[in-house]
Amino acid sequence: MIIGGVAAGMSAASRAKRFDPGAEVVVFERGEYISYGACGLPYVIGGEVEDFDDLIARTPERMRGQGISVRTGHEVTGVDAKAGTITVLDRAAGRTTTEPFDRLLIATGVRAVRPDWAQTPPAQPPLGGVHVLRDIPDGQAIEASLQGANGKPPKRACIVGGGYIGLEMAEALHARGLSVILLEKGPEVAGRMLDKQLQHRVRAELEAKGVEVRCGTAVEGLTGEHHVTGVQTSGGLVRADLVIVAVGVRPNTELAQAAGARIGKTGAVAVNIRQETSVPGIYAAGDNTESLHGVTKRKVHIPLGLTANRMGRVAGVNMAGGDATFPGIVGTAIFKVFDLGVARTGLTQAEADALGLKAASVDVDSTDHAGYYNDSQPIHVRLTAEVGTGRLLGVQLVSPRHISVKRVDVVAALLHRRSTVQHLFDTDLAYAPPFSGVWDVLLVAADKLNRKIREA
Hints:
Elements: E1 2-3, H1 6-19, E2 25-29, H2 41-46, H3 60-65, E3 68-72, E4 74-80, E5 85-90, E6 95-100, E7 104-106, E8 110-112, E9 130-131, H4 136-146, E10 156-160, H5 164-175, E11 179-184, H6 196-208, E12 212-215, E13 219-223, E14 230-233, E15 236-239, E16 242-245, E17 249-251, H7 254-258, E18 282-284, E19 291-292, E20 299-300, H8 305-319, E21 333-337, E22 340-346, H9 349-354, E23 359-367, E24 378-386, E25 392-399, H10 408-416, H11 421-426, H12 441-455
Parallel strand pairs: 1-2, 1-7, 2-3, 7-18, 9-16, 10-11, 10-16, 11-12
Antiparallel strand pairs: 4-5, 5-6, 8-17, 13-14, 14-15, 19-20, 21-22, 22-25, 23-24, 24-25
């Protein structure tokens, strides 16, 4: 039995059925969609992807054709670990049933955080034009607002939060012709993703493209009767007829807790390397689950698509009687903001400092390929390592050419092997003028950092 579709749930279902074709695999999904690329939602809204249907990877019908029972519109409301049963609500029929399981996977994902100021009292109808973005129905609701669900299309959008979703939605709504203002409570956008030395580059790109950015601004409430008209902030009223709340996510752990599973210090479900919870026979995978960080060897909650898919594959094999393990993560992430590509992996200098590590960083500005070759673009690399051991800790990259920052994958691979800066410098990287300089910017950064940590 699998609670939840999308990345982890459907990966688990497919792997379990492939490992043991005779197994009965049942997936319960409370929504309509079971498998889609949620990371593509901003790009549908912005127009780079034509339709939400283009994001759908697998349909219930296709999965049923592979022998996997998929029940959409079915919400699991309870888990009895001792009895080995779950309680399921058929939302369309309004009927509740009890289903037995031998192995159970809880893949309930995360929900978007809605601060008190973004919530409507139960007795009142929701305030129109206020949205979060986590799934296809959320995206469709935003699209309806853009089409003028309240009688007229919006002209001024306010995005609250300068993280991944906030930054991507700023670009998407700007592409739709709206005037966009982005509010961030912290001192700078991308504050949890990058060091200060790179944060300002992201903000500069936003402002260069016409997005108004206000940092150090706390939201206190919304104005409007039936439809939002503004956002009340610590710096005054911001007029807006469309508001995107992008202040973070929270893991859905209620069913895991009801089953008696341990919740980690991160607030997500604690699991071992086989994706097993503290309750025998019950597994957890995906965005609701914490991971082991390969650099710090600490448990973290970093919900990203590849992580969820990997976890699901491991859980599916083990639920079907196999023996698979999840290798952990190193915090690799990549995103674009208008014409700027941004990537990171491992630890930033600020994160290393917060953990009490003795770390050093260097910054290198270069070009993404040979400077004399046509159309070379600037690239900035910030490389971080541990003083004394020379152990690589992380890298951050920013470049106007999006594909250039995929260099992050080189460092990510080395981090999984706990490599040193010298190992990076010794790596045999490809060279030809259209692709890089003879000394790639990563090698230049490694050489510079080697000298710095030797002198420290």
